[in-house]
Amino acid sequence: MTALTVRLPNSVHQKIKELAERDGISVNQFIASAAAEKMASVMTLDYLKSEANKGKRSDFEHYLSMVPNTPAPEGDERVQPVTR
């Protein structure tokens, strides 16, 4: 495990202490969890962008052309927006 010094505004530190106490965990656990959540979020976005870049418009259009051109089933219709 690595030790890390982080400088926080007093107000942020105080709020972290309050939230950690409310959750029954240490400030270290709270910050480690917050960092892990942020890391997972960034990595997920990177993955999704990478996968999206592999897509081809021609593939999309091919599969879209396979969708039958029929009315939506009852109850699934598109609702027209109300204009005023």
Automatic annotation (TrEMBL):
Domain of life of the native organism: Bacteria
Region (Disordered): 65-84
Chain intervals with Basic and acidic residues compositional bias: 75-84
GO annotation (BP), single: regulation of DNA-templated transcription
UniProt name for this protein: Toxin-antitoxin system HicB family antitoxin
Organism encoding this protein: Acidithiobacillus sulfuriphilus
